[in-house]
User: Fold this.
Amino acid sequence: MSELAASPAAPRRRRRLSLRPNLVIGTCLIALMIAAALLSLVWTPTPLGTMDMMSRLAGPSAAHWLGADHFGRDVLTLLLVGARNSLGIAFAAVLLGGAVGVFLGLFAAARRGWAEEVIMRFADFAFAFPAVLAAIIVTALLGVGSTTTVIAIAVANVPVFIRLSRATGVDIWSRDFILAARSAGRGPLHITVRHVLPNASGVLLVQATTQLALAIVIEAGLSYLGLGLQPPAPSWGKMLNDAQTHMGSQPLLAIFPGLAIAIAVLGFNLLGDGLRDLLDPRLRRTR
Amino acid sequence: MWLTLFRRLAGLVTALFVTALVAFILIDLLPGDPALDMLGTQATDETLAAAREALGLNRSPLERFLDWIIGIPVGDFGISYRYRIPVSQMIAEGAAVTVPLGLMAVLFTTAIALPLGVYAAANQGRAGDSAVMAFSQIGLAVPNFWFAVLLILLFAVTLGWFDAGGFPGWDAGFLPAVKALLLPAFALALPQAAIIARVTRSAILDVMGQDFVRTARAKGLSRRAALWRHALRNAMIPVVTVMGLQFAVLLAGSVIIENVFYLPGLGRLIFLAISQNDAVVVRNMVLLLAGMIMVVNFLVDLTYALINPRLRGT
Amino acid sequence: MRHGALPSILLATGIAVALAAPGVQAQVRDDLVIGVTVEPPHLDPTTHVAGSIREIVYANVYEGLTLTDENGQPYPALAESWEISEDGLTYTFHLREGVTFHDGTSFEASDVQFTYDRARGPDSQNAGVRLFSAIDSIETPDDRTVVIHLSRPDGSFIYNMGSADAAIVSPESVESLTTDPVGTGPFQFVEWVRGDRITLERYDDYWGDPAQLSEVTFRIITDPQAQVAALRTGEIDVFPNMGAPELLGEFEADDDFVVMLGFTEGEAILALNHRREPYSDVRVRQALTHAVDREAVIQGALAGYGQVIGSHYPPNLPDYVDYSGLYPYDPARAQELLAEAGYADGFEAQLILPPFPYARRAGEIIQAYYAQVGVDLSIEVYQGPQWLTDVFREFIYDMTVIAHTEPFDFGNYARDDWYIGYDNDEFDAVIEQYTLSNDPEERGELAREAQRILAEDAVVVFLFQLPKTGVARAGIEGLWLNSPVQANDVTEAYWAE
Assistant:
């Protein structure tokens, strides 16, 4: 919202100003989410797992600030722990998918030739294959659970990182300082680790931030379908699914978890955009 | 030129074959015996064996794979384990829901995104632009299934204007069927519109910054006229491309959205088939999806190659 | 004459006369739209276990030699009468005259032989194959007589031949039953619009009293919210089993609707795998029963609709004994018992759940209760076939939640190959005697005895009788309140206004 207020006032300085709100708002939202996740480690309004059938579907009250669900569980408690689970899964999945993708991408950039062809063909296809669908198939094969959810989301992340790291890698490989390193007799592994990776890290980090947003949506979607986190682990997506059945009697249940997802996704998207601006203003318009 | 085309085509067929093989192997590994799903808790070894025989599960994997692959070119995808009807029929019935749903979603997306994108570009840097960009950020952040739930809450549960879900079938009449697809299509369209609005905006701004537009403007053409006369038409190329690429996203979205609204489309078909371990249906659906994506990619590549000879090598 | 048909017809005629009197009464409807939650895989109950098939075709389209009424009692259907020999080994069925299948072919003794041989033969794909296991041979001395020789007495035989698994089919149509069901019932199949509806119409050549409804449509509506909406807008007249019991409340205060709360044949249990430690220890099983507040489970999983059970027997049937208070909710006692059994610190276990909503919700609540006595459950939800394979075939599980919907299925606990793995000679003896006995009194006594043993031994954690939570538009009469078998028998349904 502050973005709205700030930009029209000073069109001349808009470049610098419009760069900041993204970063600031994004950082704030994500800080809020991380704070909620951390808070849930030490404090929740009610202990996790407490069911109180007397307050089934109760609205907000002093006892339950955001109301209670169909098992009489405190919604705020579920949201806080949900933040922890959601962020945890998203980080783990992007890290895992990123690691595999960057490895393959940089390998392709270093080796070129048929290895690159095979990896890139795979990446092109996997990139186009719907992430949620890939996740559903992985889940069907491995059974449901948090590990599977991480793997499923990681799988969806791999092609993104392959394409990005390969493109960035090829670009870096063509630069002069690489030539210098090569003429100094350095091998591809050394060059990749010492030169390519550090130079690509900024771009990759920005992408990872955006991928976190996507990971959160996929996790919520899988959990909504009953394929993500399993009870009693609270998940925003699962809360939404439960809420749908009880929408007639307690509509608020359908509001809060969705809001939490939207805030987290918005936060990571803004943060990603902000970092992108910071890193390379030329990239601003491409997304 | 023909050689390139032939090579690409051969590559496509090979890729499809590999996908089919991988899909077959992976999906055959899905845990659980479809015969047991037929017979339930009171099954005996004998009835199970008979049911497996009837479902064709007793044949070797190679036989079943070849049977499947050979049938595909003639439209014989096999018989569903659970429903005992041809998969081709199930896919046709699912497509009768998903394809119109997708078309409506594209329609909504275009109707929302293009005006917004053009408006934002025309008002670059002003309040209108910021408002559109803010809308787009929020549209990107709201997951489509939550938006769908909110739509149900408002229009079905509270106002009662629409059904909360389900599909009456096309023979119930055109309007009732379209009405049942309206909310789901809208839910699918919103995040799409957010993306396309952004793409439209930046594509127009890019074109506006290009030399021929600058020249035109230097010759006294107003910014607005330049926008309408030059930028819009040229900006449509990237926009349409992105929309084509969003096709897969749309398909993925339909898996969840069809489940939110309980629509008997392809998305729900594959979801249910996986949860019922109906391997025949699942592998066909996976191949169908993968095939569509590959064919679309192939056609995009081809078109580019035809339009722009410089790209042929890449 | 169909069992119980006479009184309701008199009643119907009485009402019709009463309504006719004012002379301006609007025409009474003779069609009915029934909502069902799950689309059936196909429409042949003799080759598939799915309840969704039975809920459409049982008694409406297909009939057996006998059928089961609303109270779980068998009554003569295609067999007009029968004699049972002294030794209980020979059943002589006298078939009805003038019965035809919906394809016009006539029903004869050879059809019974064909049906039963198909169900029990080497290539049988019948889910209820065990119901036929006592049959030794079948003779058809003439068109209207079937003589069945059993290898051992089977007190449930008459009842069993009234199950959907024993529906009589004809060799002429058997190949296409899955998509084009052909039976002898008062309704014949018209069409199936996949994902939306299945339509039946009155069969004019029915052998008995014709159905009062001319057309019955089963609408498939999976979304609970849409179910409510469809009832409200009048798209659907009756939803015999709503997808989400919590939505029933909306209709309770509404005079236009009748909430129909009844029992199904489903005993919901938390099954324990006796083949694994520590579930072979009766103290652990008792502790697990003490540790969960089953009323709370019913609150959370079924919005309060349901009845706690203490053994494996439906509360609405004769011979039911209430053991629900035997091991009441008492976490302190649970912990004592666990400590006695050597699990003072509790233990960890895996709870595998099938994808049914009641099971998932009940599982979640049980997990919360068990956590309080130190029993740490990890939940996994499996898709249907995998759950069946792991639990029922491979016995790879600690605990699962499931409602057993086969009628009189407590005998399963005596089976060696049953997934529970319960081993008790006393119980086995009771069940054997029950199976062999043809004396109703003795069978009742034995059924009560079986309930007692299962309850006292806390064989599993008996949770609740799965309710039948239906909503009907006011004015429909003749529907089943209880479902002793999986069915929506509308053969005697009619509109009263």
